[in-house]
Amino acid sequence: MALIGSLNSGVSALRSFSKGMEVLGDNVANVNTIAFKSSRMDYTTGFGDVLQRSTPSASGGNVGSNSTSSQVGSGVQIGMISVNFAQGPLENTGRVTDLAIVNEGFFKVIDSANNKAYATRAGNLRIDDRGYIVTAKGYRLQGLKQDEDYTLPKYSVTLNSDNGLVYTRVSLGEGPQSEEITNLRVNFNLTINNTGTGLGGTLSVAAEVYVHYTAAEIKTLAPSLDSYTFDTRGNLTYLLSDGVAFSPYQLLLLKFSDKQALQHEGEGLYSGFDAAGVEDFNRSNSEPGTHGLGSVRGSALELSNVDLTQQFANIITIQRSFQSAARIISTSDEILNEITNLKR
Question: Is 249 within 8 Å of 144 (Cβ atoms)?
Answer without folding.
Answer: yes
